[in-house]
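Appendix C reproduces, verbatim, an entry submitted by the partner laboratory led by Prof. M.T., so that reviewers can inspect both the input and the predicted structure.
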Amino acid sequence: MKEASVVLCADELMLAGEVYLPDDVSRAYPAICLCHGIPAVKYNPGEKGGYSELAQRFCRSGFIALAFNFRGAGPSQGNIDLLGWTHDLTAALDFICMMPEVSRDKVYLLGSSGGAAVSIYVAARDKRVAGVAAFACPAEFDFMAAGDTADALIAEFREIGIIRDPEFPPSREEWLGHFAAVRPLDYIDKISPRPVLLVHGDQDETVPVEHAILLYNKAGYPKELAILPGAGHRLRLDERAIDAALKWFQSLI
C-alpha cells in the first residue's frame, strides 16, 4: 500500500488529507472518498479508529481511498460550515478524478452523519459520483433552528475547536440556513439511478433510526437499507457497518 499526504483547496482554505493506493498501479482502480461527521470532541491526532485506518482497510480491499478533514476539523483551516463542506467535498472529487490511477466511472462516497448529509447533497448534483454509502445520516437539521439550541451549539463548537474565529459566524441565521440548505431529504431522490446504501443503528443516540427510514422511502432505486440491532451513532467503529459497506462497494465494481 502506498500512502501520501495531500492538501486540498476550497474557497482559499487548505484542507488536510491522506490518499492510499494499492502497490500495483499498472491499472486503474475504483475510488472511495471518506467523509467524516461533525466532530463531537477536540481533535486528537493520535486517536485510534479514525478515518485514515478505515481508508487503509478499503485500500487493502482494492480501492484507492481518500480521507480528508472538512474545514474546521482536524488540521484543516476554517470554521465548520455545512454548505462550505459541500465545496470541500467537490474539491476532493476534483482531486480524485484527476488521479491517473482512478477509474473515473467508479468514484464513490462513504459519509458518516453530517458527512453523509454532505455526500448525498453533492452526489445529487455531481454526476461524477457513482454511488453513496451513508452511515447514520440525518434526514434534516430542523432541530438546530431553535435560537437557544443554536447558541448552545455555537458555544459547543467553539469549545471543541471547530469554530475558531471570534467573529464566526458573521450571521447566525445565514450559518443555520446552510444546514437547512443541505437537507438530505431534499436531495436523496436525485441520486437515482446511481445506487444508495443507508446504514443506521437502531440505538442511535444522536440521529434516531426513523431518519434512515424517511430517507430510504424518499430515495429512488437502486437503494438498500441496513438497520443494525444495538448499534449507536459511531458506525465507523462497528464492524458490521464497515463490512456491509465494503461488500456493497465490491458488488458495484
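The radius of gyration is 17 Å. Additional entries are available on request from the coordinating office.
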